[in-house]
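User: I'm putting together a teaching handout on how multi-component assemblies are represented. Below are the sequence lines for each component of a complex, exactly as they appear in our records. Could you produce the 3D structure of the whole assembly as structure tokens, so the students can see both representations side by side? Please keep the chain order the same as the input.
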Amino acid sequence: MISQLFVLSQRGDSIVFRDYRGEVPKATAEIFFRKVKFWKEDEEGEAPPVFNVDGVNYFHVKVAGLLFVATTRVNISPSLVLEFLQRNARVIKDYLGVLNEESLRKNFVLVYELLDEMIDFGYVQTTSTEVLKSFVFNEPIMIDAACLPSLGPASIFVGYILTSEIDGTIQMKSYLTGNPEIRLALNEELSIGRGGRSIHDYGSSSGAGTLILDNCNFHESVHLDSFDIDRTLALVAPDGEFSVMNYRMTQEFRPPFRINALIEEVGSKKAEVFIKVHAEFSSSVTANTILIEMPLPTYTSRVSFELEPGAVGNTADFKESSKRLVWGLKKIVGGSDHVLCAKLTLSQETHGNITKEAGPVSMSFTIPMYNASRLQVKYLQIVKKSSTSNPYRWVRYVTQSNSYVARL
Amino acid sequence: MAPPAQSQRSPSPSQPSGKSEVTDLKTQLRQLAGSRAPGVDDSKRELFKKVISYMTIGIDVSSLFGEMVMCSATSDIVLKKMCYLYVGNYAKGNPELALLTINFLQRDCKDEDPMIRGLALRSLSSLRVENLVEYLVGPLGSGLKDNNSYVRMVAVMGVLKLYHISAATCVDADFPATLKHLMLHDPDTQVVANCLSALQEIWSSEASTSEEASREKETLISKPVIFYLLNRIKEFSEWAQCLLLELVAKYVPADSNEIFDIMNLLEDRLQHANGAVVLATIKVFLQLTLSMADVHQEVYERIKAPLLTLVSSGSPEQSYAVLSHLHLLVLRAPYIFSSDYKHFYCQYNEPSYVKKLKLEMLTAVANETNTYEIVTELCEYAANVDIPIARESIRAVGKIALQQYDVNAIVDRLLQFLEMEKDYVTAEALVLVKDLLRKYPQWSHDCIAVVGNISSKNVQEPKAKAALIWMLGEYSQDMNDAPYILEGLTENWDDEHSAEVRLHLLTAVMKCFFKRPPETQKALGAALAAGLADFHQDVHDRALFYYRLLQYNVSIAERVVNPPKQPVSVFADTHSSEIKDRIFDEFNSLSVVYQKPSYMFTDKEHRGPFEFSDELGNLSIGAEATNDVVRANRVEANDQDLLLSTSEKEESRGASNNGSAYSAPLYDASSVSAAASQAQSDSLISNLEVAGPQASFAIDDLLGLGLPAAPAPPPLKLNSRAVLDPATFQQKWRQLPISVSQEHSLNPQGVAALTAPQALLRHMQSHSIQCIASGGQSPNFKFFFFAQKAEESSIYLVECKINTSSAKAQITIKVDDQNTSQEFSTLFLSALSKFGFP
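Assistant: Of course. Below is the structure of the complete assembly, with chains in the same order as your input.
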């Protein structure tokens, strides 16, 4: 069971602090924060989500720059506590609309109300936004229903695709009065599991229509009674935001970008970097907030850039402290090419193979209205419409990069 | 809302101690306490908020207790809730003032609104003041009978809170029995779940003193209760499902039909989006199938895909919890995951705690078919800007090299690392090359050619420097400069801060001297002189020892310091297989994340509900070695049987027991481990160690102590089909006094036959002495036996610790019937002394 639960700001101040069992010292918030802060200096790397100090176990998740922390002395399931902390943040966000330090500080009494009902004496009681509604006296205002599947491809390139995977989720945000049943229809030619075949067997992908998910899981409100027949999910949507379905696919897909990168020596203590990005998707779609990063040799002292003429919202920078090249593009229209050329001044001669001293190139982006996985919501139906309201509904597709890397 | 008037004259808002603020608040609360002016509730709300926010940041506002209580006479529910929160926090420190709150809380417990009743009851039971419990019993009793499920839910947790304040009051009011009734009859699943949580805590803690509670605790995992709950599992919230599944994992089904029923019932839980539900389900599947090897393997195949999906959905923290469990399974059954290695490739934006786990998994699944791809991938990480991960990656390549048969390609890669001219890469690679040469001396030629080019000035890390020096000593005949490099290092003796490096330097100079005496003589003299003057005790002692050895006889010195070596076949594993089994038994707990069994990081009472195996585990903690390094070679045969290593032990605990997950006791491995770790760095010590046991045998033989005559068995008869469950064993072991405690010498045949615990276990069984728990690796074994007098209920319990290198058995016997303890002891020793004879 959970002994204490608290939320800390980025600077380590307690915004809410609830002690459920009085079994661990009061000073845990300071102990925790010091440990996390100095983890890097002491032990290399980021503090893991679970650690033990003097017999007290600390669990934490980072959400919106806040640290949600639970403590216990008991040998509990770590997954249970971390899932709960994440859900706890989600529920708070459902109530506050926006989750950040300011909204939390302004509503901390409301958050206490939630924490009191979600856990009693260390045991989780409920995390359902609508059940909690009757215990919270700052009535939240909820109006619209929305549904946005977002899909994240992860790829690594070495000239050819080394490995690529899509981790997708159908995310639902629902504030329907009366919690009616909702039906979501997915692609009919959807199959789950890759029986017998090796998961990374790209060569023999089946017919173009079939969509193969390696595996998926569902929110507990989802009924799968007709899923096997017509690929429909039925659910009584709880209030707030949640994942209806998570899925994973390694079926071959066309990655949205192709990256070519090159670094070469050009004379003594000089080198050049070329990066070319080609957008593989159709010109009706535009990617935005693109960021491309590349570690340069540690002995790079100066970098000058040549950006494309007439480029708008196109920036390039050399981060001296981390020896990284950072190239940002506001927008990339489908089908287009973009090139960056950088001239490096080095503080010493190279050891011979400069390629080994730089890279890999990583890229992050968001592509609205683009669906890398081809998994679609064919329709979203509210089975019993209430007579008084005609709810809004919309479906949105987003593709987000997760780990998109091109090696040199 | 109007800002409180106080804010204008607040002297210094930045002052954190808040003394004057608290005084201000006190004045204002007093002013408002009696007021009935319109809008007074709003002003109170603002003040209360302030109090709560001070409380949150740790300012002591307990001095406001009286004023807060005075202000709480209100119908405003927001105020009420803030007041409850405040009172709950400070009542413990102000028992007299807490009494003031009882009145209004008791009144609220009878409110019309079930929510108010619930809130008041929760606050009343959260006061944590012992002399107020009399006021709690009544409202709790009515709360448990309330027609509103929210109030019952709160009341059940209230009973548990009461138990923690005053166990006697709780038990005297017969609350546990009421909870048991609710658990089996209440229509609301959260009430049921809370009853289960409360009863687990109460009965686990009562069980140590009460037979009845101990029986009640057992009924929680009896068939009717388990199936009643399982059939309703889908009605429970996901969190309560975790609780039920945790309970089901403790249940021992009567037959395989039951096992399959449970698994079919829970099959769709594996598709749940909540990782905690999935892991709890997996634990049930793994525990249920422990004794069914083929089904157990199918379970591994079945859970792969859901686990991988959980790893890649959710936040990094959630996926870390799942990945830790996947890591445990991969290390246990690498061959099942060997085709999934690409899932363990690191993504550049993953936190380092995730990458570290993935690297270990890649190392574990590497086999003949995928090694090339895996090592290629790891080499990419080695050039990574993230230095800790780059280091880990190089170590991973080295580990793969040490576990493979065909290392051609890997050796080349390792040598390329040495040429990368990055200090940390060179350092890691040197340590690896040294280990590699100890296993594959045939590669010495290729490796030495590259190592010879490394300037010792570029190697600063002690471990790497020690490795380089070891190679200089070991291969001094193949490295032209060896004597001169060693000489140079000896000249800088005083600048060398690491004692480990100086120790290695002494040994290396000695080895070099035996091979190339004229060139090394000068360095040797300097090294011995510096060593003798060294302030570090070990360095000083080693120098003195070498000096005297050389004085005595140079060729004997060479045999001691530089004997011909056997290549190391398997390097010591960091964890013993008992520890791994124990962690596996504690699946879906922190043990998996920390990679330690719970007794290593948790007090006994906090190891979680239903930890039946505590006692058995505890018995051995005293002897537990914290040093996990154990002798090499010893676990070679374990690989095939890791997956099911508990199953054989499972069988030995008797068919009818419905006890808990089994945990093998652990025992002291420190004597060997010290030797083993030394052996890695110094051949000298390991040589002496090897001579040890033989020498002691010889002396035993000379003195005629080694072979005690087997005494004739006495007329005591034992029940050959005795049965005892672990819980009873533990309880008896705790309660009974020691009847016999003695040391007994083993004959050499017995020692020779004791290669694994199972051998002795079967032997004793043939003498009607059953084993309930065993464990160990040569030379330390530990057993718990029991026996039952024929046609009587009288039980004998034995703890038997055997050290095969000293050929001694330490025996402790506890018995129900003291009159027969000597007879039993004689019988036990007689059985033991026959071990090893056909």
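A couple of points students might notice: Strands of chain B lie at 740-745, 770-777, 780-788, 795-803, 808-815. The two ends of chain B are 92 Å apart (CA to CA).
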